[in-house]
Specification:
It comes from Prauserella shujinwangii. This is Putative dehydrogenase. 46% of the residues lie in helices and 25% in strands. With 297 residues, the protein is an alpha/beta fold. The protein folds into two domains: 144 residues, NAD(P)-binding Rossmann-like Domain (Rossmann fold); 119 residues, Dihydrodipicolinate Reductase, domain 2 (2-Layer Sandwich), CATH 3.30.360. Helix 4 links the parallel strand 4 and strand 5.
């Protein structure tokens, strides 16, 4: 563990407790050394559980680590990520990257200027079944279209029911990045949003254009009483019709895969990755265009 990256965790919500903290503790390339939240007693409890130290301030945490993992709302993340990057700290970032495009661009520019590693936690992209599916889809080519359906009652339950930012920004900001990222990876870069509609209960329907001529659709909701959650991706074209689902309980495995890449990038000096900070900026722009069209601007 002497060569492990010292990582500070910011946040102590459900995702921080169940994914970030155990993942950073158990991975051979990282060591969870510091925790900070705006509630000192919560930070102390999480830190004690993993043999880390609770810090009194964010700056104190930054001063004693090599990297910072952020598990906070997007509006908070953008400002803290810029400060950490300017201090020369590598970053593990949640999606969406920020609350708006300008915030996302500020993070990316700070990362570029500081020459640090910054990876987005797009969990499905790191899962082995997803990687195999994308490799197969890319090799086959000739796709004319695709679809994503992510229908959930997550905001009706206890785990995320108290997440104020998810209630405010809704399904588009929370699960939209996952859906758009995979459609983009499978069909080519998203070059435009052709239509976007937000219906009752925050149900989104989006039509996307991709480089190369393919089009895709996405249906997203976090407020439908659907059990189990429906997560389905599909592409169709000359290669037929190929689908991808999500394996329940795979978040820890995906986080381990992210940390594999993260530690390797830091060690090798690599800065580009399919899920790097510029990916976060691209997805933020797609989200912003969906909102613009849905609001009729």
């Amino acid at each position: 563990m002497d060569d492990a990256l010292r990582v500070g965790l910011v946040g102590a919500g459900s995702w921080a407790r169940t994914v970030h903290a155990p993942g950073l503790t158990e991975h051979p390339g990282t060591s969870l050394t510091s925790v900070w939240t705006r509630r000192p007693e919560v930070a102390a409890a999480l830190a004690d559980e993993h043999g880390a130290r609770a810090c009194a301030t964010f700056d104190e945490l930054v001063d004693e680590v090599d990297a910072v993992a952020l598990a906070v709302p997007p509006g908070v993340q953008a400002d803290l990520a810029v400060r950490a990057a300017r201090a020369g700290r590598h970053l593990i970032l949640e999606k969406p990257l920020a609350s708006d495009v300008a915030g996302a661009e500020r993070v990316a520019e700070a990362v570029r200027d500081a020459d640090v590693v910054a990876l987005m936690l797009l969990t499905m992209r790191y899962a082995l079944p997803t990687r195999e599916w994308l490799a197969d889809v890319t090799a086959a080519g000739g796709w004319r279209g695709g679809s994503a359906r992510w229908l959930s009652g997550a905001l009706l339950g206890e785990r995320y029911g108290g997440s104020s930012w998810r209630h405010t920004e809704g399904a588009l900001a929370d699960i939209g990045p996952h859906a758009f990222d995979l459609l983009d990876a499978a069909l080519g870069e998203i070059t435009g949003v052709l239509a976007a509609h937000r219906g009752d209960g925050d149900v989104w329907h989006v039509l996307l254009a991709h480089a190369g001529g393919a089009t895709s659709t996405a249906a997203l909701s976090l407020r439908l009483p659907v059990r189990p959650t429906v997560v389905e991706f599909a592409v169709y074209g000359e290669g037929g019709y190929r689908t991808l689902g999500r394996r329940p309980g795979a978040a820890a495995e995906s986080y381990t895969a992210l940390l594999d890449d993260f530690a390797a990038m830091v060690a090798s000096g690599t800065r580009t990755h399919p899920c790097d900070v510029w990916r976060g900026v691209h997805l933020q722009r797609v989200i912003a265009e969906c909102v613009r069209l849905a609001d009729g601007q």
